[in-house]
Specification:
The protein is mainly alpha-helical. It has one domain. Helix 2 packs antiparallel against helix 8, helix 3 crosses helix 5 and helix 5 runs antiparallel to helix 8. The radius of gyration is 19 Å and the shape is globular.
Amino acid sequence: MTRGRLTLIKALVILSSGLPLILLAARGFGYGNLGANPIQEILHTLGKTGLNLLLITLAITPLRKLTGLKWLTALRRVLGLAVFAYVLLHATTYVALDLQLVWPIFFADVTQRPYITVGVAALILLVPLAITSTNSMQRKLGKRWQKLHRLIYVISILGIIHFFWQVKITTVEPLVYTFVLIVLLSFRAKDWLSRFFQRTAVNKS
């Protein structure tokens, strides 16, 4: 994979990641319909897109190992930043449009509504990952960078829980998302267990 082709692929990933936001804005400005409850539609679209991109980000490593395409790793940063952008916009829409910046209601929601608590926790954990996403921060943190960015697994679980609890009635959709996350985490768990047993065997020898 040449640098030029990788740059083009990254640009396409950025464009694809931004397409749901562009379509949402077009619908908001009269080229579509946001339905009877526009704020809820915006919240749902931003949050679901962020969750979709999060699962795609988690799928990068399994896909790289299954296909041998090492250049896929270079897409994780772009996708991760897109996840942060959508989750931040999701939270901003909730605070600014849904609550109209009434902070007492926000703090009450965080402490009294579990799915809001979980969502805010996921956003807070995403902040240090976004801040340390640069090459310079990766070099500066060294091995600590990898440990820090393992928070993505915790964030993904919180994101699924937030989505699951937010749905007022039981539907198939959150179950599908949960299944996809379990499959993706199973790939990672298999690697962890393999390395653990390898280290154990080395220590015994």
